[in-house]
Write a structure and sequence with these properties.
By secondary structure, the protein is α+β, with helices and mostly antiparallel strands. It has two domains: about 20-60; about 80-145 and about 160-210, Proliferating Cell Nuclear Antigen (Box), CATH 3.70.10.10. It is built from four helices and 13 strands. The chain has helices spanning about 10-20, 85-95, 135-150, 170-175; strands spanning about 1-5, 20-30, 35-45, 50-60, 80, 100-105, 115-120, 125-130, 135, 165-170, 185-190, 195-200, 205-210. The chain has a five-stranded antiparallel sheet. It has a four-stranded antiparallel sheet with strand order 1-4-3-2. Strands 8-7-6-10 form a four-stranded antiparallel sheet. The longest helix is centred in the middle third of the chain and has 12 residues, at about 135-150. The two termini are about 40 Å apart.
């Protein structure tokens, strides 16, 4: 197991290079220090492929420290919702971070999503989406409980409840700006007033990014 060195290498340029890559190979090598070697195959102007190399310094972690870096189990979410394209969210967040320090992400099981900021001038700006795919996990639990109790008719579920969390808008902006490659699906999991977990789903990979709620 290896951990990237903060500030080491050219991570930003690596992502820019990989956007047009045909293939990517990653291996651990030793130069002056241990490095992750990224061999990126690209098409050249002449039509022939060429290889571009990037070396990212890393620290090698001994096996006794591996348990410290295991993925922690997810908390019990109140709601999960599929987000619209990253580009649309990034445009709004980048504009609003000039006027506010925090942003509230609010959603319900019907598929309504709201991104809100409150300005110091007491004005409120809201971006709204409707008809997104969403799941209220409390409703799912009620369905399971009703089946377990062998209830003849499905119980009436309460109206969709909104769940939200307020987070640092600059940290959310960093997440949205770092995505050079568009994920297949972009999901937000909400624990009410506690945290937001963003999950970027690709064909063969999954990235998680958790933002704790800010106490205003």
């Amino acid at each position: 197991m290896a951990r990237a060195t903060p500030g080491g290498g050219c991570a930003g340029s690596n992502l820019n290079t990989m956007v047009l890559a045909r293939s990517l190979k990653i291996k651990l090598v030793r130069r002056k220090t241990p490095c992750l070697a990224l061999e990126i195959e690209q098409a050249s102007v002449t039509g022939r492929s060429r290889s571009v190399w990037h070396f990212i310094p890393v620290h090698i972690l001994p096996p006794r420290l591996w348990p410290d870096f295991e993925d922690t189990p997810d908390p019990e979410f109140d709601l999960s919702i599929f987000l619209p394209p990253v580009r649309n969210l990034r445009l709004f967040v980048d504009r609003m971070k000039r006027f506010a320090r925090f942003i509230t992400v609010r959603a319900n099981g019907v598929g309504d999503l709201y991104l809100e900021i409150n300005m110091e001038t007491l004005a409120r700006v809201r971006l709204t989406y409707h008809g997104l795919r969403a799941r209220n996990w409390h409703q799912e639990l009620e369905k399971k409980d009703s089946r377990a109790a062998d209830v003849g008719a499905m119980m009436d579920l309460p109206p969709a409840t909104e769940f939200s969390a307020t987070v640092d808008i600059r940290r959310l902006s960093q997440l949205l700006s770092s995505q050079r490659i568009q994920p297949n699906w972009f999901v937000c999991n909400i624990v009410n007033d506690h945290l937001l977990q963003f999950v970027l789903l690709f064909e063969n990979a999954r990235l998680k990014y958790t933002l704790p709620a800010s106490r205003l």
